[in-house]
Amino acid sequence: MSSEVEAESVPIREAEIAEALAAGPVRDAVKVHEVLAKAKELKGLNMREVATLAAISDPELLGDLFATARQVKELIYGKRLVLFAPLYISNLCANECLYCAFRARNKDVKRRALTQPEIAEEIRVLIEQGHKRVLIVAGESYPNEGFSYILKTIETVYATHSGNGEIRRVNANVAPLTIDEFKQLKDAKIGTYQVFQETYNREVYSKVHLGGKKKDYAWRVTAMDRAMQAGINDVGIGVLFGLCDWRFEILAIMQHAEHLDKKFGCGPHTISVPRMEPAVGSDMATHPPQAVSDVDFRKIVAILRLAVPYTGIIMSTRETPNIRRETFALGVSQISAGSRTNPGGYVDGEEKEDTAQFSLGDHRGLDEVIRDVASLGYIPSFCTACYRLGRTGADFMDLAKPGDIKDHCDPNALSTFMEYLVDYATPQTRVVGEQLITNALAGMSELQRARSAAMIEKVKAGSRDVYC
Q: I need a labelling partner for 199 at 20 to 30 A (CA). Which of 176, 205, 329, 437 fits?
């Protein structure tokens, strides 16, 4: 175990999870409703309560679970959905992960690492689509320059502009780092640092990670400790659903979140819920060891929303448009759109299977996704205000936990959405979007409506990056 990893920092206690799964499930409607009533208090749930919800199979109780998740999501986050795009800069990797196309020994993948000028071109395409935030993603190996490749990429992204557009928040999903490297990442003005444990089950983890630094379970699971020790306030966790029993994974996610909250005063900023999808050169990706059904996937989203109510839940384009729509109401608060998972995919204009990490389920462009989201009554948001105003980490959680963050998010969502409509939307999307904004304003309090309307008028008059 690395000198930077303390044994007590490994937050997963598998015996407690097994005990909760054995004792928690109570197929009793009264007990389920007690748990749902507690969830409405926005204070989270314990492991046995989560195990009780995970055992629900009765359609009526499922409906109650989903309705409660929707209520909690809207109490905390309102009707907004934050949009972002992943930027895959390299598919080089030194690890041997059986489920991933990027694994080191996979001969079916064509390797590519983008140069800084190529990264700038990718960013210009994203900016001209209307994106304002990106998630940098790289295989866990870099060109000869090493970790500085990531730091240079962040600099390139922030320095690239096109017309009225720019990327205002750069998040990163890269290999776990040392504390010193995390400090460099913070100095580069990173937004959220994100890395997935893939599975919290130690036995399964060892079976699917056969080579490279990623074999070290403890080094990976303590990455968030090092990031937060280095001063990065916003971190994102997640697993790859399909590797292990999803019930085990959501309880482990809870333990990880509770550990961070107790140690650093705030839990994870986001939780991602990717399901395994086919990947070139991986039989396991095509045949998940413990595949998650669509019904159980919806349960996962709903239960996580109730168990860790303050945390943003991210839904990627791995999922189909229908599944994405259904989960908006169950707790999802951030989505990717118009994604490519192959380096250079935005300039190329296509998803190339022989360089991509996995297969996409949603192939729609950003404008079509936004029109769909708006037609469903959700506010597409490109807001990055919290990051610029220092509302991160514990300060963000102080607003999120009681549900006060939406008082800032809703006006900012509307102003950034109007910015998109004016600068980038197709005429059809602009009609749908402006009607949504009118409806959203009508549902606000008088004070909030006045603030929001003033911000929207500034955007219409030519101002950009208007936020409160």
A: 329
